Amino acid sequence: MSDFTSNFWHLYIAGITLISILACAFFLWASAKTRVMPAADNTTGHVWDGDLREMNNPLPRWWVYLFIITVIFALAYGLLYPMFGKSQGQLGWTSHGQWETERAKALAAVEPLYAKFKGMDPKELAKDQQAMAVGERLYMNYCAQCHGSDARGSKGFPNLTDADWLGGDGQPDYIHKTIAEGRQGIMPPMAAAVGSAEDVRNLAHYVLSLSGSPHDSVRASQGAAKWGACAACHGADGKGMHATGAPNLTDQIWLHGWGEETIVKLINEGKTNVMPAQKALLTDAQIHVLSAYVWKLSNTN
């Protein structure tokens, strides 16, 4: 992989770009210097399809001048803007810098609106129709891709409407922190701690039994003895713990799928889920409104 991150490649791209521009200029100059001795009828002697003859007429002047302008423009553009490899250009322009400038203008335009909401308690903010309309737009732009437009999530992405929270109490402060800083949930592979493949399968049936899901009662009774490997995170009663981010296994809410095979795979392979931090994209005021909106999704009464 180091071959693709070395300094050679930016020089290669810069060289190819510059050579291509200069080659255009050279061929334009060469074609202007080349003289073809025409026949008496001003043709070059090339004939196609029996009677289609190539005339020896020069290129139109406007076309030649336009070609020269494009070559000059390309060289000037490459001098001013990042076009030749790692060269930043004399103007120091970057797409990220332009995005930051445009973002700053957009935030300045809506700052008075968010100033109105800043001092409000999130639970009171959830009652404000204007704030919730703004929160909905923020949700659709930054959250719906994973949690769904209806906030009910999908496999691997939590439902935000059911009041089932993995890493906290679901209060606005926790939601605000999760949106801003993100969250990582890790279940390590546990097969080695559980025992044999049969032990893992028995434990899977015990897990199913905790929520009253269909299971083999004989296997479940045998798997109960292996529950100790899981109790440290999920609790002795299987109801999970916010401190570890371990889900409640008794409520029939399955984030990563349901059934014996799914649970066996999770025990064997573990699972890592990541909620990315949004503080680089959203201001604290925007997160404040969005937190109130997300809190309201599971507190509609």
From TrEMBL:
<keyword id="KW-0249">Electron transport</keyword>
<feature type="binding site" description="axial binding residue">
    <location>
        <position position="234"/>
    </location>
    <ligand>
        <name>heme c 2</name>
    </ligand>
</feature>
<comment type="similarity">
    <text>Belongs to the CcoP / FixP family.</text>
</comment>
<keyword id="KW-0406">Ion transport</keyword>
<comment type="pathway">
    <text>Energy metabolism; oxidative phosphorylation.</text>
</comment>
<feature type="binding site" description="axial binding residue">
    <location>
        <position position="147"/>
    </location>
    <ligand>
        <name>heme c 1</name>
    </ligand>
</feature>
<dbReference type="GO" id="GO:0016491">
    <property type="term" value="F:oxidoreductase activity"/>
</dbReference>
<feature type="binding site" description="covalent">
    <location>
        <position position="143"/>
    </location>
    <ligand>
        <name>heme c 1</name>
    </ligand>
</feature>
<dbReference type="Pfam" id="PF14715">
    <property type="entry name" value="FixP_N"/>
</dbReference>
<dbReference type="InterPro" id="IPR036909">
    <property type="entry name" value="Cyt_c-like_dom_sf"/>
</dbReference>
<keyword id="KW-0679">Respiratory chain</keyword>
<dbReference type="GO" id="GO:0006119">
    <property type="term" value="P:oxidative phosphorylation"/>
</dbReference>
<dbReference type="GO" id="GO:0046872">
    <property type="term" value="F:metal ion binding"/>
</dbReference>
<keyword id="KW-0408">Iron</keyword>
<feature type="binding site" description="axial binding residue">
    <location>
        <position position="187"/>
    </location>
    <ligand>
        <name>heme c 2</name>
    </ligand>
</feature>
<comment type="function">
    <text>C-type cytochrome. Part of the cbb3-type cytochrome c oxidase complex.</text>
</comment>
<keyword id="KW-1133">Transmembrane helix</keyword>
<feature type="domain" description="Cytochrome c">
    <location>
        <begin position="218"/>
        <end position="298"/>
    </location>
</feature>
<protein>
    <recommendedName>
        <fullName>Cbb3-type cytochrome c oxidase subunit</fullName>
    </recommendedName>
</protein>
<keyword id="KW-0813">Transport</keyword>
<dbReference type="Pfam" id="PF13442">
    <property type="entry name" value="Cytochrome_CBB3"/>
</dbReference>
<keyword id="KW-1003">Cell membrane</keyword>
<dbReference type="InterPro" id="IPR032858">
    <property type="entry name" value="CcoP_N"/>
</dbReference>
<keyword id="KW-0479">Metal-binding</keyword>
<feature type="binding site" description="axial binding residue">
    <location>
        <position position="275"/>
    </location>
    <ligand>
        <name>heme c 1</name>
    </ligand>
</feature>
<keyword id="KW-0997">Cell inner membrane</keyword>
<feature type="domain" description="Cytochrome c">
    <location>
        <begin position="130"/>
        <end position="211"/>
    </location>
</feature>
<keyword id="KW-0472">Membrane</keyword>
<keyword id="KW-0375">Hydrogen ion transport</keyword>
<comment type="subunit">
    <text>Component of the cbb3-type cytochrome c oxidase.</text>
</comment>
<keyword id="KW-0677">Repeat</keyword>
<dbReference type="GO" id="GO:1902600">
    <property type="term" value="P:proton transmembrane transport"/>
</dbReference>
<feature type="binding site" description="covalent">
    <location>
        <position position="233"/>
    </location>
    <ligand>
        <name>heme c 2</name>
    </ligand>
</feature>
<dbReference type="GO" id="GO:0020037">
    <property type="term" value="F:heme binding"/>
</dbReference>
<keyword id="KW-0560">Oxidoreductase</keyword>
<keyword id="KW-0349">Heme</keyword>
<dbReference type="InterPro" id="IPR004678">
    <property type="entry name" value="Cyt_c_oxidase_cbb3_su3"/>
</dbReference>
<dbReference type="GO" id="GO:0005886">
    <property type="term" value="C:plasma membrane"/>
</dbReference>
<feature type="transmembrane region" description="Helical">
    <location>
        <begin position="62"/>
        <end position="81"/>
    </location>
</feature>
<dbReference type="InterPro" id="IPR009056">
    <property type="entry name" value="Cyt_c-like_dom"/>
</dbReference>
<dbReference type="InterPro" id="IPR038414">
    <property type="entry name" value="CcoP_N_sf"/>
</dbReference>
<keyword id="KW-0812">Transmembrane</keyword>
